[in-house]
Amino acid sequence: MSQTQDAPHITGKMFLFERPELLTREQHGNLGVGPAPKPFQFCTKIRAVPLTISEIPEASKFYPVIFMSQQDPVPLAVVGLHSDFNLFVDDDGNWEQGAYIPGYVRRYPFALAGEAGGDRMALVIDRAYAGVSAQGAVKLFDDGQMSDFVKQAMEFARTYETDKRLTEQVMAGLKEFDIIQTQTAQFTPTGGSEPRPFAQYAGIDEQKLREVPDDRFLELRRRNVLPIIYSHLISLGNWRSLLVRRMRRFNLSEIEAIGAPTVS
Q: 202 forms bridges with which residues in the sheet?
């Protein structure tokens, strides 16, 4: 893809992208992609990753699935507590084997960016990714044209963008039911008698869900939102396993794991 005067321009920030650039033959024609020394180092210091609705059932098996806020209920997979580390990426930069990796992460270092106020999309690459270099074995361009690898990356990015837009539509509809509220995650330490709060998040209020009138509840079913709601509610059992993961990672006691981070 050649960058022309009419090409869309990147505006604002892109989550996880340090140096997003529109992919062009002129700028990136001699570059390729290869294995990075630490493949997932780019997302080691995050606490949550965006999800699309199609991902929620699988992601709910491994992570607490929450929403960004009542006002903007973007689904998120929680991968860390407080502000320390992504607890699913080890010191060698590898994502835990067998755990679901969200599509937002899998498409990296590529993404689609749209122009402000328009519908056109262009492929973006994070030039800061350690796997992008002139020595990369898989070239970005062949004979001046996008390589098959880049075409596949673009197709995945397009599919993800379609899922993202569907997610926005579904979540806007769910917001109308006013069942997403501020919730508190709690944990009772061994030998303790009182649960201790350790995280606040936006989630489905089960009492409000029970109070939804029958006709409105049927509307949730017609919109096929119930599997998303129940997957989210089941996923909240993963808060405890996230605490245990943090205890093991940093050799913390239960009380320390609940509290603020002690490792920089």
A: 67, 182
The CA distance from 123 to 112, in Å, is 5
Identify whether 95 is part of a domain: yes
What residues make up the domain containing 189?
20-258
Residue 183 is assigned to a structural domain of this protein: yes
Report the alpha-carbon distance of residue 230 to residue 208 in Å, rounded: 14
The first and second tokens of residue 233, run together, are: 């509610």
Q: Which residue has the tokens 């929403």?
A: 67
Average pLDDT rounded to a whole number, residues 154-170: 96
Question: Is 187 part of a structural domain of the chain?
Answer: yes
259 against 170, higher pLDDT? 170
With bands split at pLDDT 50, 70 and 90, how would you rate the model's confidence at 2? Answer: very low
Rounded to two decimals, the pTM is 0.89
Instruction: Say how many domains are in the chain.
Output: 1
Ramachandran class of 166: left when φ > 0, alpha when ψ lies in -120 to 50, beta otherwise: alpha
Single-letter amino acid, residue 170: V
Q: Would you say residue 258 has pLDDT above 80?
A: yes
Is 6 part of any domain? no
Q: Are 4 and 10 in contact (CB under 8 A)?
A: no
Residues in the chain: 264
The pLDDT of residue 237 is 95
